[in-house]
Amino acid sequence: RQWRIRPLAAVGAAAGVAGLLLATSAPWSPSRPEPDLPRDLAVFPFTTAGLADSSMGHRLAALTGWSLEQVEGLTLTPRQLAFRAWRGSDLLPARRLAALTGERTGSRYGAWAIVRPKGDSLEVQLRMVDASGEPAFEGRVTGLAADPAVLGDSIARVIIRAVSSRTDYRRRKADVLASAKPEAVEQFLLGEHAFARDAYLTAERHYLR
Hints:
The longest helix has about 30 residues, at about 150-180. With about 210 residues, the chain is an alpha/beta fold. The chain has helices spanning about 15-20, 55-70, 80-85, 95-100, 150-180, 180-195, 200-209; strands spanning about 40-45, 45-50, 105-120, 120-130, 135-145. About 45% of the residues lie in helices and about 20% in strands. The relative contact order is 0.20. Strands 1, 2, 3, 4 and 5 form a 5-stranded mixed β-sheet that branches.
């Protein structure tokens, strides 16, 4: 496995701005600059719910982190630092994830999960945020409870796809906006602002202008 971001091919016409970017991943706020942080990701201890073995959350987070450490070019916050920061906070887990991702751990993204039993399997509800605390990904991963190492690897693959898709989106967006006409850029940014407010019809009108 390799950590690679494919650059966008040359874009010829400004009219392609909206269509190209709408085909990518989740909306991104153009007013929020990408932070200059030294690491790509912090993996925080996972929480268990309904499991007799309460240590499984920490074990699974460590296994996930180990798998991610094998990915060339992906930089992680040291496990001891991420775990210590997590233990030192009294915030509820979801708020703790948002508070610790970013400058506190030097990470562009943070990952945390709730681990629950599901028959002979474990269901991992994974949540990720970016450095500003905004949601970046939420989903579920399931694997056999008897083989947490394989499950950790599965979680790592999901994290890699989530982070790479958002990074690829930002690079695509920067490339397209740099080559577009000013009036097309203005309409696109107005569409992005409307989309962020769930004003989808207004956003579509701006995208198509």
